[in-house]
Design goal:
There is one protein chain. The chain has 3 helices and 7 strands. Helix content is 21%, strand content 23%. The longest helix is centred in the last third of the chain and has 9 residues. Strands 2-1-7-6-3 form a 5-stranded antiparallel β-sheet. It has a domain of 65 residues.
């Protein structure tokens, strides 16, 4: 089954130090997430989901091999996510960029 990890951008940079599992159990929510308007991350985006042996590094593709993209926290809230994932997103500024790492 397809899973999603959310990588909220740090407010002062093009990186994420958070890996937030999105517990998607509803196919309708999954469909909405897959169809969100997204934008490719910049060529210097970094996270702890990189292939770098040090753990933190460039993260330009997801686990499926597709280019990593981002949307806003506000758009993710409109997708129907629930539980702790939703609570975390609610605490972010609505315009906060969040990368979508599919695996």
């Amino acid at each position: 089954m397809l899973e999603l990890k959310l990588l909220p951008f740090h407010h002062h940079g093009n990186y994420s130090t958070v890996v937030l599992p999105a517990d998607v159990v509803d196919d309708r929510v999954l469909h909405r997430l897959r169809n969100l308007h997204t934008v490719p991350v910049d060529d210097d985006f970094a996270s702890y989901l990189s292939d770098d042996e040090n753990g933190f590094g460039l993260t330009l593709r997801d686990a499926c091999g597709d280019p990593l993209t981002w949307t806003t926290a506000d758009a993710l809230l409109d997708s129907g996510l629930t539980g702790p994932t939703r609570a975390y997103l609610c605490a972010l500024p609505p315009e906060c960029r969040v990368a979508l790492f599919w695996c």
